[in-house]
Amino acid sequence: MISGGAPFVIHEHVRWGDVDYAGIIRYDAYTRFMELAESELFRAMGISYREFNRRFDFSMPRRVMHLDFQSPPTLDERLTVVAYISNVGTTSLTLNFDFYGDGGALRATGYLVLVCVMPGVMQSRPWPDDFLSLIAPYRVSVDDARRGRSVPV
What we know:
Elements: E1 8-13, H1 30-44, H2 49-55, E2 62-69, E3 78-88, E4 92-100, E5 106-115, H3 129-135, H4 142-146
């Protein structure tokens, strides 16, 4: 594990389209928050999705999506989404998401496993060194990312 990394944090409100008739977030709405945090994380690294494939010769399909629901956020609640990379293998990485609501309440945790593949053929390949350098500041263990998170940033 690379030490010294820090999670990436975004804030987003639970919107009308995210909730059910009772005003509680729908489970599938978390994918919107994950996509938003992921795209803003890469943007913070200087890589927009528009230029991603031009800059690097790989794509990153998702192999695994996992969510654990702790407590339901409600309509208009401001969520803090903490994103970080907890594991990097030769051809895959784990992108974690921790969701905190009002007062620092843990709402959910989840992760994606992204695989480095050659475009067009969907064959895995090792991560390029220049990409590994870009993600290094956001490599954090799950325990370190969650340590001391009683109130969201």
